Automatic annotation (TrEMBL):
Record's protein name: DNA-binding Lrp family transcriptional regulator
All residue ranges annotated as the HTH asnC-type domain in the record: 3-64
Keyword Transcription assigned: yes
Entry coiled-coil feature ranges: none
């Protein structure tokens, strides 16, 4: 799907706040509310917008602690990687999981109400995934920035 300037503006605006009304978006991008709705529907159908989500304050819902985990595996066998990816994707405490280059094979962002919950998760990880060689944990002491926004340039880049 080729994105024009209106699409790019809308993508930036809905990433900032997906709860904005069509009327508000229309006013900001100089289109009609129905044109905004059509464009957003097309962006969703094309897979550009994959879902709408709410960003919560972790402390207010009992998830005050973030753990950044570097995970190393024993072997790069496809079936073992598939199993580990599925396991990670199924864990509610694993907020994000990245397959990466460098010393670690995966980097995880885990949120839990306390260290006991985190320790139990990591014990299950090691027990249920024998391909995991080791993991290193960093505890986030504070949050400087948290988000999933992807900056969309208003003009097409070559």
């Amino acid at each position: 799907m080729k994105l024009d300037r209106f699409d790019r503006q809308l993508l930036n605006l809905v990433q900032e706040d997906a709860g904005r009304t069509s009327e508000d978006l229309a006013q900001r991008v100089a289109l009609s509310p129905s044109a905004v709705q059509r464009r957003l529907r097309k962006l969703k159908e094309a897979g550009v917008i994959t879902r709408h989500t709410a960003v919560l304050e972790p402390r207010k819902v009992g998830r005050p602690t973030f753990f950044i985990v570097s995970l190393e595996i024993e072997r790069d066998r496809p079936e073992l990687l598939t199993q580990l990816r599925a396991w990670l994707a199924a864990q509610e405490h694993v907020q994000q999981a990245f397959y990466v280059t460098g010393e670690a094979d995966f980097v995880l962002v885990v949120t839990a109400p306390d260290t006991e919950t985190y320790d139990a998760l990591m014990a299950r990880l090691a027990t249920e995934n024998p391909n995991v060689r080791k993991f290193t944990t960093n505890v986030a002491l504070g949050v400087v920035k948290r988000g999933l926004t992807i900056p969309v340039p208003l003009e097409e880049m070559d």
